[in-house]
Amino acid sequence: MLDALFSLSFLSLFLVPFMSSYSTSLNFLFFWMTWSTLIFSHSALKVEMIGTIVVRLLCFGVPSTLMYLFDVMAPSVAVIIKSQGEAGLPGGKRRRNLKLKHFQIVGWSLLNLFLGLFVQALIEILLVKVLRWRSALKISSRLPMPGSIIKHLLCGIVLRGILSYVAHRYALHHPRSPMIASLHKSWHHSLRGIYPLTACYDHPLPYLVGKFFPMYLPAVLLRFHLLTYLLYLAIISLEETFAYCGYTVMPMSFFLGGVARRTELHLESGGHGNFGPWGLLDLIFGSNIPDGDDDDDNDERERMFQGRVSEAIERSNRGIREGTLRRNTRKT
């Protein structure tokens, strides 16, 4: 019961100031009072882990699961806005094509998500309880200054991009690390296309090396304030959510659409390029996979999209006609 109340109070920390009609000063005062109450009434580890869990679930777990259910429950509708067409659906266009493997992918994805949370908690316990050092993240009732937040966010995102590129290219796809590379190939690269939740699908070891540590280490090295870390984590979680959703329509498609397309090309090429999340390092070090997305390709994609829409409309009309015919047959 206390844990539930604590979780609700943590959620209100982020939601209420933005949903209220009070002035900015009162919102800030409310935020500071709520934050201070959490810090003084609960252990630092509990505040850090509950906050991390809330952000990961709100920005990745819940939206990715909802999009996955949409793909599974309405594949004939979802395929219209899938950039990879039928390959971007867990079981193809028909729900009966779903197999045990597709649910195992979901299970391993969620397991890896919570594995990262467990490792984060383990690191904090080791530092604070065992070694008697300070915590990996700065947990204080004093709120970080806006300039500090922006600086740490920019540095963290840049450092995370560098670490992701190095880990992905030289650990997950390099002959000198055959065990990790083999696991990554047989797990993540067994996917025929990307769809929601597959951002975390991999063997646990490659997931920690290629996803978790490149995300977590910048926050530790720069010792983020917990609030800065939660904002940083929210940005990365949303990036993973939309980069792996496989949809052609998404928020901020100018930025996230490029990340998503690079991810698709990496998977389609068998991991021969596009190792970084944003592509700059791939361009610098010659590992970029050209999209070849010229005007002809754009026209072809437009024709394919129109074809999917027409097919869906025709299927719907055919179902209506068949239903009407059956009802008329019963009456006669």
Q: Mind explaining what this structure looks like?
A:
This protein has 332 residues and is mostly helical. It has one domain (43-294). It has helices spanning 2-19, 24-41, 44-73, 75-78, 100-130, 146-170, 178-187, 204-221, 226-243, 253-268, 280-285, 295-331. The longest helix has 37 residues, at 295-331. The chain is globular, with a radius of gyration of 23 Å. The chain crosses the membrane at residues 49-70, 105-128, 148-167, 215-235. One of its GO terms (biological process) is lipid biosynthetic process.
End-to-end separation in angstroms reads: 62 Å
The total count of helices amounts to 12
Shape summary? globular
**How big is the Rg?**
23 Å
Mean pLDDT: 82
Percent of residues in beta strands: under 5%
**Helical amount:** 55-70%
Query: How many structural units, i.e. domains?
Result: 1
